[in-house]
Amino acid sequence: MRVKNLLFWIAAFLAFSLDQLTKYWVMQTFSSGQTQALLPGVFHLTYVTNTGAAFSLLTGKVEWLRWLSLGVSLALIALAWFAALHFWDQLGYGLILGGAIGNGIDRFVLGYVVDFLDFRLINFPVFNLADVFINIGIICLLIATFLKTPTSHRRSR
C-alpha cells in the first residue's frame, strides 16, 4: 500500500517528535528560568513558559490558542488526506503540522508552551523547535508558490 503525501507525514512526525523530545529534556534538566550559555551573550538555553503564541505573541490567550492549534492541525491532516501535494507543499505543511501539534499538546496538557531557544545577541524572544518548524514550513510554502508556473488564461473561440 502506498501512502499518499508520504513526505508530509514524515516531516510532521519528525518535527513533532524532535519538538517534544527537546521540551521533555529541557523540563527534566532545567528549573524554570534557569539558563545555560552555549555561546555567552549570543545563544543560551533558557527554560521559560509561554501562555501566548510563537515568540510570546498573544500572551495569556492559551484557551483560544489551544483550539486554534487543534483546528489548524485537523485542517492540515484533511488537506494531506484528500489532496495530492507537491514536494515543497508536503514538506511545508508537514513541518507546520508537527509544530502545531507540538505546541498544541503543550497548551492542552500543561496550559502553556515550553520555550528554551534564547538568542540574546539580537534580543529575540525565547522560542522552541515547534516555532522553528512552523517558520521553516512557511518558507517551504513560499518556495512552492514561487516554483509553480502560472496557468494560461487564454479563451478558446
Distance between the termini: 45 Å
Q: Which structural class fits the helix and strand makeup?
A: alpha+beta
What share of the residues does DSSP label as strand, in percent?
5-15%
The biggest sheet amounts to: 3 strands, antiparallel
Instruction: List the helices and strands in order.
Output: HEEHHEH
For the secondary structure, the number of strands is 3
Helix content: 55-70%
In oligomeric terms, what are we looking at? Answer: single chain
Count every helix, treating DSSP H or I runs of 4 or more residues as helices.
4
Rg from alpha-carbon coordinates: 18 Å
Shape: globular
| Strand order, largest beta sheet | 1-2-3
> What are the segments in which pLDDT stays under 50 over at least 5 consecutive residues?
none
Mean of residue pLDDT?
88
Compile the SSE list and pairings.
Elements: H1 6-29, E1 35-39, E2 43-50, H2 62-82, H3 87-109, E3 113-119, H4 129-147
Antiparallel strand pairs: 1-2, 2-3
Helix pairs in contact: 1-3, 2-3, 3-4
Descriptors:
157 residues; alpha+beta; three-stranded antiparallel beta sheet
Could you characterize the architecture of this molecule?
There is one protein chain. This protein is an alpha+beta fold and about 160 residues long. The chain has 4 helices and 3 strands. It has helices spanning about 5-30, 60-80, 85-110, 130-145; strands at about 35-40, 45-50, 115-120. A 3-stranded antiparallel beta sheet has the order 1-2-3. It is globular and about 45 Å long.
